[in-house]
């Protein structure tokens, strides 16, 4: 299949590498001003969890192919920094590029905003289960054996089965939540609680160190569980029925001290999860997640004292 990746970010490049490795034609849409700086190859350092739940360390090269104007693709993978999706849609139209959009973004806006933004496009919401960072010409990343994907009934794309075929061919399963957009909100709320706790007890400007400190402390993890309960209630204030996500939220309902012990053990034994926690170092993205959840709680007059205190402290630490 023919796949277009928007830009040269971590998520898009990680999945682009995986798709290319399985024989699919992968191109990247790069702004004209940046094309001269794009390398022909990127070194890939990958912890691959598709074949082994402990992950397999791999070192490889990924050849970058730059897209041309007036092109058609089976799928266009969009994973860009917060607030830049509108610019992506404009660029695709200006360059006369078309294909089914796979939206791999943390989206905080509601369904009407999304429908208006992608009007005239076939698109599907999803969420990657991968992460990492790019430094120079090296991609340091990890990938799991699944992604989150909107159900066939709730999307307008005609090539849903073809997407499942692409994923299966690359040894990636699709997990289908009750509602993909609501699931993203819940995921962002959980992340906001994790980030603010890591920021309170560690140096948030050294994200790896802060994440490791959180994962190695059952006490901090217990406090994180309590914070998650507050942030998830903020999501409920958006008219989300949390009963539809009992499986996703089950771990956060057990006694917080016990949950902290269980999570510490999980982080110690699961190198894939530990790696994805330590590799994410984009502070602006981390703050964006927390701010959206905080503002929502404030606007909806939700009582979230623990999270609010931690968010305000995080903001001070980042801005000092």
Automatic annotation (TrEMBL):
Pfam name, any one: ApbA
Domain of life: Bacteria
Entry-linked InterPro entries: KPR_N, NAD(P)-bd_dom_sf
Gene3D superfamilies for the chain: NAD(P)-binding Rossmann-like Domain
Location of the Ketopantoate reductase N-terminal domain: 3-107
Transmembrane regions: none
Protein name as annotated: Ketopantoate reductase family protein
Protein source organism: Clostridium beijerinckii (Clostridium MP)
């Amino acid at each position: 299949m023919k796949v277009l990746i928007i830009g040269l970010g971590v998520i898009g490049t990680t999945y682009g590498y995986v798709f290319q490795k399985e024989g699919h034609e992968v191109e990247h849409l790069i702004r004209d001003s940046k094309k001269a700086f794009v390398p022909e190859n990127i070194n890939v350092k990958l912890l691959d969890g598709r074949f082994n739940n402990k992950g397999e360390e791999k070192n490889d090269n990924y050849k970058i192919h730059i897209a041309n104007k007036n092109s058609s693709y089976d799928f266009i993978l969009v994973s860009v920094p917060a607030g830049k999706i509108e610019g992506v849609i404009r660029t695709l139209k200006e360059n006369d590029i078309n294909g089914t959009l796979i939206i791999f973004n943390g989206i905080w806006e509601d369904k009407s905003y999304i429908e208006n933004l992608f009007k005239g496009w076939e698109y599907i919401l999803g969420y990657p289960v991968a992460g990492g960072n790019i430094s120079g010409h090296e991609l340091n990343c990890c990938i799991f054996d699944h992604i989150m994907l909107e159900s066939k009934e709730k999307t307008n794309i005609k090539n849903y089965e073809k997407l499942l075929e692409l994923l299966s061919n690359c040894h990636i399963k699709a997990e289908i939540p009750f509602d993909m957009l609501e699931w993203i909100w819940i995921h962002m709320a959980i992340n906001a609680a994790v980030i603010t706790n890591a920021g309170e007890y560690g140096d948030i400007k050294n994200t790896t160190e802060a994440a490791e400190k959180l994962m190695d402390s059952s006490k901090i993890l217990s406090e994180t569980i309590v914070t998650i309960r507050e942030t998830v209630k903020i999501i409920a204030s958006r008219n989300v029925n949390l009963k539809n996500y009992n499986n996703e939220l089950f771990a956060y309902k057990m006694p917080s001290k016990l949950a902290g012990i269980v999570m510490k053990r999980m982080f110690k034994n699961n190198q894939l999860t530990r790696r994805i926690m330590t590799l994410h170092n984009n502070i602006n993205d981390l703050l964006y997640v927390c701010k959206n959840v905080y503002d929502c709680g404030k606007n909806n007059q939700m009582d979230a004292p623990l999270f609010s205190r931690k968010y305000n402290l995080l903001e001070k630490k980042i801005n000092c």
